[in-house]
Amino acid sequence: MKHCGFMVFVSVLLLLGFLPEQQLQHLELHTYEHFSYRWLSAHFIHLGLQHAVMNVAGAIVVWLLCVSIVPTGLLLVMLLLLPVGVSLGLVMTDSGMSYRGFSGAIEGFLVVGIIWHWWLSRRFSLLLGALVAGKLIIEQMPSFDNTYLLDSIGGLVAVDAHLYGVGGGLFLALVYLVLAYCNVPCFCAPWRMPWARSRHRS
């Protein structure tokens, strides 16, 4: 069931890549706007088909990381809340930019997958976490060139969206883990799952 839902999702992302530019402009996020449907819709459209394919590739990687260990309910909540959280961050900083793409949300999914992998393989979790942290640091440096994909996707790399995606993923993971620790029904603690390894194993 999970795999069928994911296939539908990536198919929608690719199909939306064929929308005419005039329609896409009505769905993209403008950071000077107050809350609207664009806070969600902007994350499922792209600057073009190549941009959509790149984000679908990223979504597949994250899916392989998360599918077997992250609860389905949490994945669905993230699918709805991570885009809104990224939009909130972009609007609060009001850079005057417009935004399209799923990359910010992908970063949030990636962080949650890394956290859940802590109870499966700590070495893998630490290594991947260090790589993501290093990537974020490099992207936030003044010398970072956010135009390096301009010729490929037709737009700038939205590094702040990546940062807010990671922040949203950390927040949702923390809330879930606290509720699981408190034994709230429907919240499954990852450290109690059959796939979780012993404290002394990596």
In words, what does this structure look like?
The chain is an all-alpha fold. It has nine helices and two strands; from the N terminus they run ααβαααβαααα. It has helices at 2-16, 21-25, 38-41, 49-66, 72-93, 103-117, 122-140, 150-153, 159-181, and strands spanning 29-30, 98-99. A two-stranded antiparallel ribbon has the order 1-2. Helix 5 packs across helix 6 (103-117). The longest helix is centred in the last third of the chain and has 23 residues, at 159-181. The chain is globular, with a radius of gyration of 17 Å. The two termini are 30 Å apart. The mean pLDDT is 90.
Q: What is the total tally of β strands?
A: 2
Neighbour order of strands in the largest sheet: 1-2
Structural class: mainly alpha
Distance between the termini: 30 Å
The sequence of SSEs as H and E is HHEHHHEHHHH
Query: Biggest sheet, in brief?
Result: 2 strands, antiparallel
Mean pLDDT: 90
Q: Compute the gyration radius: what is it? A: 17 Å
What does this entry show, briefly?
The protein is mainly alpha-helical and 202 residues long. Helices cover 62% and strands 2% of the residues. Helix 4 (49-66) runs parallel beside helix 6.
